[in-house]
Amino acid sequence: TLLKMSEDTKKFTPDDKDEYDDDPDVLRAMLSCGHITDPQTLTDCCRAQLDAGNTEFRCPLCEDEWPYDEVRKLAKLTVDEKCNFEDMMGTKAAEKLCPGCDSFIDRLDVSNLCVECSICTKRNGQTYEFCWQCVREWKGPRPRGDRCGNVGCTSADQELLRDCPLIYLKSVKNIQCPSIRACIFCGVLIEHTNEGCKIMKCKECNKQFCFICLKPAQECLENTNHFNSCSAGLAPRQIDSDM
């Protein structure tokens, strides 16, 4: 079973009760107010509140306000839906000053921290990009939603990868490993529930990797099987050396 983690301790799990959807096969999210919902129900609920003229999202069961950052992550909105929601709310993602020219720049894709400044690009004759998180010239591969390659650029996801508890994988000879890993292909955080084998399938990109050695599944299974230790050994926590 996979748990799709977001920031802090919010998680998707198929075992909780959604007051508006009892489909047993749907992954559900625990919101900050403590109530359970699935991504589609959350999206529909927020859209209905916007259509009614509300500019903030509230739980229909307890009236607690849901922070928009939480809705944006857990509702699994597309980029178009995020932009539409932000337009309707009148709170489109804030502009930031480009570190190259001090011009205010919008970020159109809220899932990507790498932002191009068209002014600097035109002025310099080559593409200029900066990090939305640390506001420095971009370093490293792109697109990325967690951090760039600059020292000190970190996120709540990195803290979660650093601080999550260790677990013993019962099905893999009680090997101890971090309970949360980032997908090696797309970076989405996944928690192992200690059920099933060491090979995990990411719900976001549908690719498989080993939770123990962090190798692609096919590479890991060349010299072992789903329930034995890895020839490559245990991979360390996926944290940056500057944390």
TrEMBL record:
The keyword Zinc applies. Keywords: Metal-binding, Repeat, Transferase, Ubl conjugation pathway, Zinc, Zinc-finger. Signal peptide: none annotated. Residues 9-234 form the RING-type domain. The keyword Transport does not apply. CDD domains: Rcat_RBR. InterPro entries: TRIAD_supradom. It comes from the Eukaryota. One of its GO terms (molecular function) is zinc ion binding. This is RING-type domain-containing protein.
